[in-house]
Design goal:
By secondary structure, this protein is mainly alpha-helical. The protein has one domain. Helix 4 packs antiparallel against helix 5. It is globular, with a radius of gyration of 22 Å. The two termini are about 30 Å apart. Keywords: Membrane, Signal, Transmembrane, Transmembrane helix.
Length: about 325
């Protein structure tokens, strides 16, 4: 797939170079009045379009939607999407680290936006499936890319937020999305993000251990009888393999419950980070990130759209083949 490899290369170069491209920031602007009335101040700043411009965001959203469609209807292609997104995330995380160590200060809002991409986005790809279309090696790659982002999030909300690399818009609040508009300066909001960051880091570490140790045990041809019931229960619930005819396998009611939960999970993973990113940009009056006229914005958006079209085409081809066989 030459087009896929070329797309991966473009995504990596674009995201990695974003941290090194000089950018012009627009601090809070006050109206030029002799009275200096505080009510005349204009909040907001010019965002980094090289990291989260409209074209890049659209490309990411197209990837998330493609991943959800693949997980449901076109599992053969989900591995390619997963690998592409992991490479992109690695580049974004490197850019975030460079921004953290850069003398040019950044805004905590920008870090929050990148956290939506780095931490929330991968859950559109990560699932319990392990087998024909998913290997332990791929799970390891996901862990290596996503888990450091959760560790960074822990550092940011506990320590980094008070560091000198951040700047705040003068006389303006900074806001984020946690099911509603919240102030990023609120103690309760900071405590919430601290708790979520630690919880995610622990959960990801636990499930990585699960894939590393319990799944290989499950694949042994000679399972120990003491471990087998536990392993069967874990795999029947977390993994999508149905294991009909085995003791302890899922019932029809279990299947219906898991299907409903899976749909809710998929919708949440897709909608929540998109709302978080777009509302955060809007509430903080971030400018310069709503155009795709430049080549740097056009390429990732077209690449993401092309991937979505390819997924839809594969699904339609599969449906057509299914009906031909049925008839």
């Amino acid at each position: 797939m030459l087009s896929l490899r070329f797309s991966l290369f473009l995504a990596f170069v674009t995201a990695a170079a974003a941290a090194f491209i000089p950018r012009l920031r627009q601090n809070d602007v006050q109206n030029a009045t002799s009275t200096g009335d505080a009510a005349g101040s204009q909040c907001g700043f010019e965002g980094n379009s090289d990291l989260y411009g409209l074209g890049i965001r659209l490309g990411i959203y197209f990837q998330w939607l493609s991943a959800q469609l693949c997980r449901l209807l076109y599992k053969e292609y989900v591995v390619d999407l997963d690998r592409a997104y992991m490479i992109f995330l690695a580049a974004v995380f490197i850019a975030l680290l460079v921004l953290t160590g850069d003398a040019d200060s950044t805004y905590d809002v920008e870090v929050l936006i990148l956290m939506y991409i780095l931490i929330c986005g991968p859950f559109n790809f990560i699932s319990g499936q392990l087998g024909e279309y998913r290997s332990i090696a791929l799970v390891n790659v996901e862990f290596i890319v996503v888990w450091p982002a959760t560790v960074y999030s822990c550092w940011f909300w506990f320590v980094g937020r008070e560091s000198s690399f951040l700047q705040q818009p003068a006389d303006c609040g900074t806001y984020g999305f946690v099911f509603k508009q919240v102030s990023l300066r609120s103690h309760s909001t900071i405590s919430f993000f601290r708790a979520v960051s630690v919880l995610l880091a622990v959960i990801l570490a636990f499930f990585h251990g699960f894939w590393f140790y319990l799944v290989p045990l499950k694949r042994w041809r000679k399972d120990r009888e003491t471990n087998k019931p536990v392993l069967e229960s874990i795999m029947s619930w977390w993994g999508p393999s149905r294991m009909e005819g085995r003791d302890g396998g899922p019932t029809d009611r279990d299947d219906l419950t898991k299907t409903a939960l899976s749909k809710i999970y998929s919708a949440f993973c897709l909608v929540f980070p998109i709302l978080g990113i777009e509302l955060t940009l809007k509430w903080n009056s971030v400018t310069g990130v709503y155009t795709i006229r430049s080549i740097g914005q056009l390429i990732p958006s077209v690449t993401g759209l092309a991937g979505l079209v390819q997924v839809i085409y594969g699904i339609l081809r599969y449906v057509r083949t299914f009906f031909v066989i049925a008839l």
